[in-house]
Amino acid sequence: MPRFDDSDFAVVSAPGTPRTEGPNPFAAVRPGVSRGNSTLAIPGANGNTVEIPASRSSISDAAALMHNLSLSPSMKERRGSRNSFGTSLPIPRSPRHSRLLSKRAGVSQDILASQVQDMSKEKVAAAKNMAFAFDIDGVLAHGNEPIEEAKLALKMLNGDNELGIKIPYILLTNGGGKTEIARCEQLAGLLESPISTDQFIQSHTPMQALAEYYETVLVCGGEDFKVREVAETYGFKNVVHPKDILAWDPTVSPWGIFSEKDRENAKPRDFSKMKFDAILIFADSRDYATDFQIIMDLLLSENGKLLTRAKDPVASRIPIYFSQGDLVFPTNHKGPPRLTQGSFRIAIEAQYKALTGVELERVVYGKPERATYTYADEVLKNWMEQIHNENTLPQNVYMVGDNPQSDIIGGNMYGWNTCLVRTGVFQGKEGENDAHNPANFGVFDNVLEAVKAAVRKELGQDFKLKWNPKVNPVLHGDDSSAVA
Ligand code: G3P
Ligand code: MG
Fold it and tell me: Does the CB atom of residue 135 touch ligand 1 within 6 A?
């Protein structure tokens, strides 16, 4: 079971946590040594990154789960936990700007809207002081199928409302596996709304900060070799994909999957000479056998030299980072939610414990980790600047999610309003909230209902969720044809 500090997400760096400099900054933790407050060392400070104390334990979940499998780490249990830890999660100091611009509504609507907005200053201020953070899987889409209500919700926030104003929103997903540009293009088509990379955070987006710390990395997960492109875009200098290793020596993974297409795209090198600095899991594995084997080979190696075996694997272990911790996620499968990266991680932890007798220490990014929400604030501020020319952080942020154990607990702990929808992992009936991690703003049938309720709370119950093209600013925008 994940263990959290009493102060939940407001943890500070654990006292006495050693700080080290250099490319492989993780200090050894020897079996039998009391873990006390600190286990993994915090990577050295760096000019372009900010280190956010981890809110999730750096110690493997596997031991606690092996005899007591549970899918419900709850807020209550987290509060009760005494396990503290000292790892930090580096995130970029400020998000990179993309050159993608969101589509404008059209010059004549812009002019009319600004006239209407001039006459409704209070509502305009309220619209700029609220924002949404949308989960994707189970809220906006199921895999490659859009959720219809999501299209209307985004249209309304993009200016199809009585003020013709953009109400800020970002997408905050634990998904990943392809570049931000590729995913935004795909989503824009799916949801029929422009989506900029500047309003988009996937599980591994903040992990670009790690490029300041590690040069040679094994990057796992996702389709084909897409995560290689992701890691290179983030600035990692020497990126190795598990299939590069299979191309070099297929016997490394006896049950591995290796196609002709893989051979065309793999980059085999002499891996016997290479020293890896870290392992990064960016998305769901598509070849568990190979990924398990190579990850375990590196965790057991002498300082990251593939296929060596360290005398003391714990002392010379290289760090491993997972981009998110969800155990299950909603897909287009008609039955219960499907297993995802958190379940893969627990298998790695269990293998490591079985082989070495000690717990695996690892870092997990993504929701509900505080670092992800801190990064989201930066993205939101930058997005406000792009759409409203104001570098301010809206005070009333609404997280709309389907997973109580990531979206809702994370949002609650970060002080956001939380809306739980019934279109994904959470399947509660009418009138029910999640028992362990209840959404503080409420439970809704779908994202559109959540957005309507939040907008009406902030902008007034009579706020019209449709732009009226016949609006006449001289009459204060009052036109009987406006649709509520
Ligand atoms: O693998 C889990 C991931 O797909 C969940 O994505 O958008 O629900 O955070 P999301
Ligand atoms: Mg979801």
Answer: yes
